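Subgroup meeting minutes
Present: P.N., E.W., G.H.
Scribe: E.W.

1. P.N. recapped why we're keeping a running log of single-chain structure predictions: easier to compare across weeks, and new members can see raw inputs and outputs side by side.
2. G.H. added today's entry (428 aa).
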Amino acid sequence: MTKKIVIGACLMALAASSMFAAKDKGGKVLNIYVWNDEFPSRFNDFYASKNPKLLEGVKVNFIQTPNQDNAYQNKLDEALMNQASAKDDEKVDIFCVEADYALKYVDTAYTLDVMKDVGLKKKDVANQYQYTKDIMTDSKGKLKGVSWQSTPGGFVYRRSYAKQVLGTDDPAKVQAMLSDWDKFDAVAAKMKAAGYFMLSGYDDAFRAFSDNMKSSWVKGNKIVIDPQITKWIEQTKTYTEKGYNNKASLWSAESTQGMMKNGKVFGYFAVGWFFDFCMPHGDGSAEGDWAICEGPQGFSWGGTWICGAAGSDNVDIIKDVMMTLTCDTDTLKKICVDAGDCINSAAAMKELSADGYKSAFLGNQNPLEIFLKNGAKISKANMSKYDQGMTETIMNSMKDYYDGKVDLDTAWNNFYTTILEKYPNLKK
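Output recorded in log:
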């Protein structure tokens, strides 16, 4: 059994434990576990600058570990398992989780109950999207984390290439040309003929398909392959063979290069945090030459949730962080305007949209109209604690098939071999 499985099993085994009772003595060190600079920037720019008195005399310590190869979760798991015996100044106070593995932490004693332990009220989170609360609600109905984000997506495309190939960059008109997958394929052929790639690579369309699955990846202990996954594989194989994509992997340098001013990629399936945090801004980038439309089908992708760690001696700060960043309308609006995040309040986004909100990155387009429309459709009823492992494994296992190195049966065999080694409790 791998270290990852052992730690995961321990976390779940302690789900009903009360060994980590919340306490608050006003600690002098606030330890926050994160995987990148996203939450630290939100904390520093929109919380710390607004609440200097509460943080007076408190050292804020960000423990940052990259997500790659499960490093962040391994580091966090080790710290949480040692939480009960750790010195007060070394205890985890806040940690962040992503949608793909949030359920791993929700049903454990390591996460504070946002209402009972931290002190937020139902009225405080009333304007937050229900799906963001559903993801972080445990089997007993306790809310275990909150987010400042909502993550509805769309298709972000290059305006100049749209004008050249399609005759317009108007989002409504481009959407009419991309409103289903057949039309999307037709535009991909036109982009190829003009010397552009419709997508960057193998993984770009994955979330547009996977977020529309009718079934969870796992039912009982049986792996289920939803038809949406099959459609993604079929499309990606076709796009690779026809040269409609650039054969780049997600997060690779090649993928990022396609976003630059001289890049040849027409578009990316993206959400607010992606084009704010992952797409290049400034010199050399294509900032301002992008627009967004709904695309062939709505989807959402990821998100970051703030969790309070049981055993923290800074629960007062945890409460204030959650209240300020995820419940305060003025702060949420500022995050949207200053940072470009799609925020976790439809009411606040409607106000901003009505006030003429524009994104400079998107050529002064108002993306909130699309986010509001797609955000209302988001449901996470089919999530499972296996989502991250399934996603990473299916992506990795199919690349050799896309490149013609193995046939489809072999790719599937490789997928099942890897996933059953990762999760030996499952079966085909």
